[in-house]
């Protein structure tokens, strides 16, 4: 199972970063390259523990839907979402926010399993892990920009 781990320093308080990261509307703006939008469950505003959201997006030229649920939340330190329906065999995405000086270290840990057994593991090595890392880093940079403008 690949695990993608990414850290970024944001010159903004953890509370600002935390709320931006769990905001459905912000998620849509920070994933515009895939046309991601919320189409079910909580479709606007801040996600809370127990909330589920269904995202629709285009990845690899295929329109897909994925439903994730917030299973853990400790504001403003961390929250975790897990896929309950979608293209992956499974995923757990943990978002952590640690104060550092005047800012925040935001950490994403994305632990996933591809479908299709051996073929899925081959896809991970050939392109999927790189694609997912680029997606997570791109979103983190967009959140950083928004948080620093807001702070």
Automatic annotation (TrEMBL):
<keyword id="KW-0132">Cell division</keyword>
<dbReference type="InterPro" id="IPR019587">
    <property type="entry name" value="Polyketide_cyclase/dehydratase"/>
</dbReference>
<protein>
    <submittedName>
        <fullName>Cell division protein</fullName>
    </submittedName>
</protein>
<keyword id="KW-0131">Cell cycle</keyword>
<dbReference type="Pfam" id="PF10604">
    <property type="entry name" value="Polyketide_cyc2"/>
</dbReference>
<dbReference type="InterPro" id="IPR023393">
    <property type="entry name" value="START-like_dom_sf"/>
</dbReference>
<dbReference type="GO" id="GO:0051301">
    <property type="term" value="P:cell division"/>
</dbReference>
